[in-house]
Amino acid sequence: MQDELMIRPITAADSAAVISLANEVHGDNYLNEESLAALLEAGTVGDINLSFLAEKGGELLGVRLTAAPGQWPIDDACTPSAWKVAPEHICYFKCAAVAEGARGLGVGKKLLSASIEAAKQLGCEAGLAHIWMQSPNNSAFGYFSACGGELITTHARRWYQASIEDGYYCPVCDGTCYCKAGEMMLYFSSERL
Question: Is pTM beyond 0.85 here?
Answer without folding.
Answer: yes
